[in-house]
Design goal:
The protein is an alpha/beta fold and 436 residues long. It has a five-stranded parallel β-sheet. It has a four-stranded parallel β-sheet with strand order 2-1-3-4. A four-stranded mixed β-sheet has the order 10-11-13-12. Helices cover 35% and strands 15% of the residues. It is elongated. The chain folds into three domains: 3-156, no CATH class; 168-180 and 220-434, TIM Barrel (Alpha-Beta Barrel), CATH 3.20.20.370; 185-217, no CATH class. It is built from 14 helices and 15 strands.
């Protein structure tokens, strides 16, 4: 039977988070009502979410956060729950905290609309997040809370049914530089050659010469390996290509979009999996540039592209999402941190972005990733073995809630050259662990 939920006022925030937790995560059919008589007369499974109960029904106390329609720093009380610290503590309730307010706060990325000190790329730093403060960042805590809610309701209410979902793994690959030496031109490769000579970097010197002579594949040309290993595990990858022309000279160091080898690679890759745009560093503050880059990819693929992930994970709310919507992007995969692994929005379930300024759900769907290669190696300074163990923990945390595990890798980190030696096996192990 349908679950009926009473709340004095069905606000946009309440409608959004209840639909997400019950329909998307728990696959449970619900109806929200603010009519007391309808709630009292209903003979099926029901509970109330308010400041005080109507009668003796199952009752979850509302903290008041979801009744607001402005953006201001809330006063958040912390309580203990199941060995964890949780926000929006309440009293005289079935749960010791407002699980719906806490979930909305995380999924909406409410804190990213408040003042904060950004990192060097003007990004919201993970250590400024409430999840990090409470030790909840590395678990899909909203999905876990939803399952706790499910078990609680199932034990208290009769004739309540929940659907099922299955764990899924979607590997995603960012192509910042399609090739290391190929398509770079004589001038750039000569400069690299001289620099390698000056440093006595024999490995790099050998790579430049042998690649230039056509005696070996370019180190970043890992596409055949990716195709084979994805086919082996029956995976459907997503590739994001950086196609910036005259972008930021320090961060958009990609091959020119008009390069024939790059264009052939993109067309070939689109036959193996989905392809999206990797908006450049420079485009984050220039919507016209974003539009131009998307048009290049649309022209190559001869269809409209509506998938994206920001280069350097430059996500500024709400500006970035509004720009993506403006150019026709409907699916974004940027939701994650560069310097920490885990679940930036508290969930491993794709969700529609909630526009806090307009107080309504948008049609832009957000796909949160859990781990990036550069995070493990560059920021956390892990060895390949340590990285493998941490990935296993993240995979298992998503499997426990039957969620979706998205990984972010780069073609160059599979090159087995320079500081990426030993990291190809990390990717292989991740695919094996996630496919079991």
């Amino acid at each position: 039977m349908q679950l009926l939920i009473y709340t004095p006022q069905v606000t946009p925030r309440i409608k959004y988070i209840f639909n997400f937790m019950f329909r998307e995560v728990l696959r449970c059919d619900i109806e929200l009502t603010s009519v007391t008589n309808q709630f009292e007369a209903y003979q099926g499974p029901k509970f109330s979410y308010a400041e005080r109960p109507i009668g003796k029904e199952l009752f979850f106390k509302a903290s008041g956060f979801l009744s607001k329609n402005n953006i201001e720093k809330p006063s958040i009380k912390i309580s203990a729950f199941g060995g964890e610290k949780v926000p929006f503590a309440v009293e005289d309730s079935t749960l010791p905290f407002d699980v719906f307010a806490a979930s909305f706060y995380f999924v909406s990325r409410y804190e990213e609309y408040l003042p904060y000190t950004p990192d060097e790329h003007l990004r919201f730093p993970p250590k400024a997040s409430l999840q990090f403060e409470l030790g909840l960042l590395r678990t899909p805590v909203v999905d876990q809370w939803a399952i706790i809610l499910k078990n609680l309701l199932a034990s208290k209410l009769e004739n309540l049914h929940f659907g099922t979902r299955k764990f899924e793994f979607i590997p995603t690959i960012d192509i910042d530089r399609a090739y290391h030496f190929k398509s770079s031109g004589i001038v750039k490769n000569t400069a690299r050659l001289l620099k390698a000579l000056a440093k006595g970097d024999t490995e790099r010197l050998k790579n430049i010469i042998t690649t230039g002579l056509g005696k070996r594949k370019d180190p970043f040309d890992t596409y055949q390996f990716l195709q084979q290993i994805h086919q082996r595990y029956h995976l459907k990858p997503i590739f994001f290509f950086l196609l910036s022309h005259q972008g930021d000279k320090n961060h958009d160091v990609n091959i020119h979009p008009n390069d024939e080898l790059l264009q052939d690679l993109i067309v070939a890759t689109a036959k193996q999996g989905k392809v999206g745009i990797h908006p450049s560093y420079a485009s984050n503050s220039n919507v016209l540039k974003l539009k131009e880059e998307k048009m290049v990819l649309d022209s190559l693929l001869k269809k409209t592209t509506d998938l994206s992930r920001q280069h350097y994970l430059k996500l500024h709310l709400p500006k970035t999402y509004l720009q993506l919507i403006k150019v026709g992007i409907n699916h974004d995969y940027t939701m994650g941190y560069a310097s920490e692994v885990g679940f930036r929005a508290g969930t491993c379930t794709p969700f529609f972005w909630y526009d806090l300024q307009l107080e309504k759900q948008s049609h832009l769907k957000v796909y949160p990733f859990a781990v990036m290669d550069a995070t493990l190696h560059k920021y956390l300074k892990l060895s390949p073995k340590q990285a493998t163990l941490l990935i296993e923990e993240l995979v298992n945390s998503v499997k426990m809630v039957d969620g979706s595990f998205y990984s972010l890798w780069h073609n160059e980190s599979l090159s087995e050259t320079g500081h990426w030696k030993g990291w190809k096996q990390v990717y292989e192990h991740m695919l094996a662990a996630a496919s079991q």
